[in-house]
């Protein structure tokens, strides 16, 4: 049946390409410009944006040098609108059902090898544009950071194989576009537009001195390790950072057996740089709650929200809110209708930040009945803000002073910077800025079962709860008390790690079965490659370099 549909679609599209018109299911834009008529079914490339009325064949790029701060767009010439193409895949559906469940599928090839396929999110593009447009422009690379789903699509392509395939030299990039419809399964049509361009990847010349493993200067807080590492792996990593294969990395710090073994800085950062690691700060909220419980300022994480707030004074009250526990917020498993994974979610963090009271924002949210029926993990930043508010009100002199006295001072951390909520409370949602070496202290504290310099800062019981599989995220990923968990496989050996994670590719890794802590900081904020490149750095370079060290 699917083969027959594909044949019928191909016949239909061939007719479109020959005649540039058909009977519309919905009324689409007419094909009136000669440039459009001559290029139906083609994807054309351009540098600086040229309006359609002035767009000429001579504006088509046949080659493009891939580099920073430049512009590359595509202009797609179709024989019909997307909705009319989708109609072929499901003639029984209305136009609204088609636009709500379908969009374009992009396929990227480099040198004839298929690299990446993406079914564009159905929310990309308005219903009107899907119904009407037969020609459209999409910026892929923009020196002005033009706001478009196309730039994010391009970055996802790079993060999922494109960056690795674009080695120095010349390459042929080909893009194909098909319609797709998501019903009980994904159904795709035949190609409705395609195009190709020669991509020239220039050699990035670097100072070879920057590739060498950086010498660790003496410091009082860490003993420098005498254990051997695979220097060639670290130099290979440094080269990829300097040549921007791995982008926006600012530091890599590795602790082994409680000693500093690697300390590398990039892109203008140094030992004293305070790094904005975004949601890495959530793990500090977990630690502070554990300390407050140990000090008996809070009874336990099983306490419910009704013990801290009169929930009936907030909007959308439900008795179900009364039973939400601190543990639910720690494990991202509360019943609030809030998800940072879904842009349209009422409780999405980007909807919280413009409000004048972030705690009210969270507690005003309704209950998600689906979560009540089926308890599940769902990333929810606003819930961590509520945890911070509870700690702030429970401990002497507020959260900021308590954190300094009970966590930072014992660890010898004196240089740090909080972000604050509109209520001037230290923000437990993220953006707590520390030096890389001090993030490493935090990770080593957990590796030490909560002890530092002979003093028990966190209880071993809290460490055990925090670094455990409290919630299942996916088949191979878990969540503890505001800590993530996954396993890397290197040379057929499993390396299970718990880690703090923040936007941009910021991580503190705590190895479960090896005496290793790794800190990676980065400023690749809001880019699809941020976390993927960290995984590549871990698997391809850092774990192989340090996991088998021997005494010098």
Short description:
This protein is α+β, with helices and mostly antiparallel strands and 552 residues long.
Describe this structure as you would to a colleague.
This protein is an alpha+beta fold and about 550 residues long. It has helices at about 1-20, 35, 80-90, 95-100, 125-130, 150-165, 230-240, 280-295, 320, 325-330, 350, 360-365, 370-375, 380-395, 400-410, 435-445, 460-465, 530-545; strands spanning about 40-45, 65, 70-75, 100-110, 115-120, 135-140, 170-180, 185-190, 195-200, 250-255, 260-265, 275, 415, 435, 450, 455, 470-475, 475-480, 485-490, 495-500, 505-510, 515-520. It has an 8-stranded antiparallel beta sheet with strand order 11-10-22-21-20-19-18-17, with helices on both faces. Strands 2, 4, 5, 7, 8 and 9 form a 6-stranded mixed beta sheet that branches. Strands 1-3-6 form a 3-stranded antiparallel beta sheet. β18 and β19 form a beta hairpin. α6 (about 150-165) runs parallel beside α18 (about 530-545) and α8 (about 280-295) runs parallel beside α14. The chain is globular, with a radius of gyration of 27 Å. The chain starts with a helix and ends in a 6-residue tail after the last helix. Residues about 1-20 have low confidence and may be disordered.
Keywords:
6-stranded mixed β-sheet; alpha+beta; 22 strands; disordered N terminus; about 550 residues; about 25% strand; 8-stranded antiparallel β-sheet
